[in-house]
Amino acid sequence: MPARVHALLVVRPDGRVAADIHLERTLTALRAQSRPVDALTIVLCDADASVQAVAAASHAEAVISADRRTSFADALTLGSHRLDGDAVWVLSHDTIPDPDALARLAGALETAPSVAFAAPKLVRADEKDRIVSLGVSVTRYGRTVGLADGEHDQGQHDAGEDVLGTDVRGILVRADAWRRLGGIDRALAGADEGLDLGIRARLRGGRVALAPTAIVAIAGSGPSPVRAACAERTAQLHRRLSYAPAAVVPLHWLSLLPLAVLRSLGAILGKRPARTLSEWGAAVTAAVRPGAVARTRRGIRQERAASWAQLAPLRVTGTELRHRLDDDVPAGTGRGDLHFFSGGGAWVVLAALVVSVIAFLSLLAWPVLGGGALAPMRATLGGLWADASYGLRPLGWDSSGPADPWSAVIALLGSLWPAAPSRTIVVLWVLALPLAALGGWFAATRFTDRALLRAVAAVAWALAPSLLDALISGRPTVVIAHLLLPWLVWTGAVAQRSWSAAGVASIVAVGVVACAPSVGPALAIVWIIGIVLTAALRRGQGIARIIWLAVPTAVVFAPLLWHRVRTGDLWSLLADPGVPLADSGGTDLGRRLALGLGFPGGDGWAALSGLPVSTWSLLLVAPLFVLALAAPVIGRTLPAVVLAIAALAGLGTALAAIGIAVASDAQQIVTLWPGAALSLYWLAVVCAAVLALDALPARPPLRTVLGTLVMVALAVSAVPALTAPLRGTAAITESTSSTLPAYVEAEGRGGLSTATFVLTPTPDGAVVTDVVWGETASLGGQTTLRSARLSADPGDELTARYAAQLIADPEGPVVGDLAAHGVAYVLLGGADVGTDAGVDAATGMSRQAETSLDQRDDLEIVGDTAKGKLWRITADVTARSADDDGAAWRVGLLQAGIVIVALLLALPTRRSLAEARRRPRIVGLPRRAPRARMRAASSVAPATATGAPVEPEHVASDPLGPEPLASDPVESAPTDREGDES
User: Fold this and answer.
1) Phi and psi at residue 210, to the nearest 5°
2) What's the rounded Cα separation, in Å, for the pair 615 and 618?
3) Residue 370 in 3-state DSSP?
4) Across-strand partners of 90?
5) Which of 105, 427, 566, 876 is surrounded by the most beta carbons within 10 Å?
6) What distance in Å separates the CA atoms of residue 662 and residue 571, rounded to the nearest whole number?
7) Span 625-662, pLDDT tens digits
8) pLDDT digit string (tens) for 530-576?
9) 517, 409 contact by CB (below 8 A)
10) pTM
């Protein structure tokens, strides 16, 4: 054994437990050693008075004080100056060695003179049969791999003796080897220190021996995951630059930043987004420390006695690494099959498709859908995405700024059918009911596993009054938002569990708010509640995922928000995107009662039966609302309360929306449409009703009776809306591919360089003017920058003056001014007479304008068209040039970048899928209920007459039950410490 052992004990108070408690435990363990240490030096890094008092009472030969920023390696260097002995025992304040640990380490060190240091088996202090570390190795590309980290100690590794490196805590090093190696490399940033020490020792001809019978317990919690990841990557890059052949060191240095980009993408794809900061921090740190690399390389060259090839047998091979990663994938399941087909979900969707085809049969032959807030799309993909980009807007004299996020939704939708983008709206209308049923069915899987109740949710969501009203009145924003909301519930309800769910939910949230900005505040309330519940019930685990849900939406809306901040018009952020469509429903008590029942514009029964709206509506929706009100009482309390808050937020938004006017359409004030807010309200009510039905006993068959009653009542309530297209009372109509004449459409498909000056007489004898760039006033080209403004801009004043000159002065130079700005056509649209009272005024103004335009020599008559009378400007037209300041690219890259990050997070991995299978599909269950439920579901159940299995009863649930299973880890870290081998 070594004649003298000098222990170096470093105290760095960075754990959750007070450092003096840790230090007292370590000193007690040192005094209990069967082979006592001969000398003890304690290095205190910014210790308080209590730690200093414990250190002073330890009878250490020296107590050295250092700054808090002193690293573990620097602290050991300070203590090494007082080294007096044949061996050095490296300890930290959170190590608790067993009484015979030093004796066994000393025995391992004396097995051969070539052994440079011996390493103990590190175990958890609170779980002695769980290994913290017992040997460390690397792959061919430098990836650190713990040989036994996290394993259950059954003596399976006690026969191992020779390893490449170890954890630095608790090692016993020969004093001469410690001096020759220069101790621990300070450039390693606190990671891989024992591994690097072992590699350097082996290159000098030494060995690293394991002493598995020497047990050292670790009581500290260690650094935060972000700090640990940064330290590990910094150490890996430093080792790579230090170990590589001299000829390739410059190549490795040049690859640091490109690899940081690739590994950041890999970290996001691997559901570890926090590692992106670590990647960049480590890359920059390694790039700016050439001196540390040179010092380490110089030390390796000195007294080198072994080659790298001699170390190769101790590395972990690719096959071994794959086996190790396979073992890290969690096994088991906490959920049953989805039963979409066997549980009737597919039949509900198919039935909804049949109903939709019958109701919208005429749409199958329409190439373009019009009416209401509908408009044609651009004919090309380039035009679709040009409407969604920052810069000059396709409507208005000189409107410029950010596009509404809604334009990107339309561009994405139109890209699904590049040959005829406008036809995607027709397809969407026909598939809206089955898609809604599908979304409602999946949203219900978060609240029940009963097939009947999932069918109830699917039917209720497909027949929601807000969706049916949007379909017959032509409001695409509400239709798309309605189809997206159940998927937001399906993914957002479990976002705290998985980055994949959080990624999908964040993308869906962008789509919902882009279609209906007015529901943003209501969703923000639910989001804040999610943060509070995650912090309280899960002790903050998964809170970063909940916070992420709002990040893509915030980034996508940031350009529009900044524009509104500069103009001082923040309320306009709530404006409904797309074609402005006024709400004629009023704000009286009857309207508000209809909103409370879920109907945005009446239930349609008055036109069929002449009975008051409240008579039928209240009777038909009463079963659903009664069940929803009962959910907090008889159902799972916490989910029911959250749904109640969501319902109140949605209903409050709808009631407030009908009184808020932030937009206009020519002379008409346009208030916010409550349809999307009512969809949120209706979804919360449906889910709450499902919770209540789920809590009812199976016998007597009350659940079946009430569920069937809800579906039948809602089907009856949907009759007026579903028959409206067949009766010819729907606002949707067949349209053309452009809002402009075919001549202009054909000429304008090349881009947005020329415009059409549109004049439309109104019933009061005035003229509404507009400037349309390109071939049509497209659906994606609509912008709230024009429809939602506090006052007229200079472009409005110019167009008004030019319109007056065109009508009043047939000889003026106004046409030349229009041509210089890029206007190539003038269109006199059909008079908007409104009522018979406005016929004379509108017709008179139309005739006066036509006469004046016909008299002009600089206008060539193209002729009468279905869109009005068209003139072509004969002068040379100066094409409008696009903005070239790069703002469009910067904004586009910012918005596309955050969406790409969300998509990478959304892509599932094998590990994320395996972990998801271990969690219950239903939210809000008690801690033990999922397992008991799975045991009941797996048992053989008797079949009914239809062949469907009888579903087991629920286990009684605790109201506060969203805690994860006791055995389900919230984060499962692999035993190796690097995500890939780059």
Assistant:
1) -90, 145
2) 6
3) strand
4) 8
5) 105
6) 7
7) 999 999 999 989 899 999 999 999 999 999 999 999 99
8) 999 999 888 888 899 999 999 999 999 999 999 999 988 899 999 99
9) no
10) 0.84
